[in-house]
Amino acid sequence: MKNVKNIIMPTDFSKLSLSAFELVKQISELINAEIHIIHVAEKNPPIISMKSYNIDESELKSRYMEQTREELEKIAEELRDETDSKIKSVLLTGLDFEEIVKYAAELHKPDEAESLIVIATHGRTGLMHTLMGSVAEKVIRYARCPVLVVPHMSD
Question: Where are the beta strands (DSSP E) in the chain?
Answer without folding.
Answer: 4-10, 34-41, 87-93, 114-121, 147-151
